[in-house]
Write a structure and sequence with these properties.
single chain; 95 residues; mainly alpha
Length: 95
């Protein structure tokens, strides 16, 4: 039973940590790359005036959900420690 709980906690911790990594690396990285492209387009004189509004809107949407990043990181770390503790309790039942 402890081994099953350890495996479930490990799986859930991976999912929680993946959510944070995906949002930070994927979506925030996408916005940074888009800002770089817009900056380059400005130097060439082909940037649209609406691009800043679009990028600011994307950034605001991501910032609105930063609480999810904080809590999924905390929950993922706690579940990872719990999974390790449960695995140790299963492997060394007598102490």
């Amino acid at each position: 039973m402890l081994e099953l709980l350890s495996d479930v906690a490990g799986l859930l911790s991976g999912i929680c940590l993946l959510v944070t990594a995906w949002r930070n690396d994927g979506l925030l990285g996408f916005i940074e790359r888009m800002r770089a492209v817009v900056g380059e387009a400005r130097t060439l004189g082909v940037a649209d005036a609406k691009t800043d509004k679009v990028l600011d809107g994307l950034q605001a949407e991501l910032n609105r959900w930063t609480w999810l990043d904080r809590w999924s990181l905390r929950l993922g770390a706690a579940l990872l420690v719990a999974a390790f503790g449960l695995k140790m309790a299963h492997n060394f039942p007598g102490g």
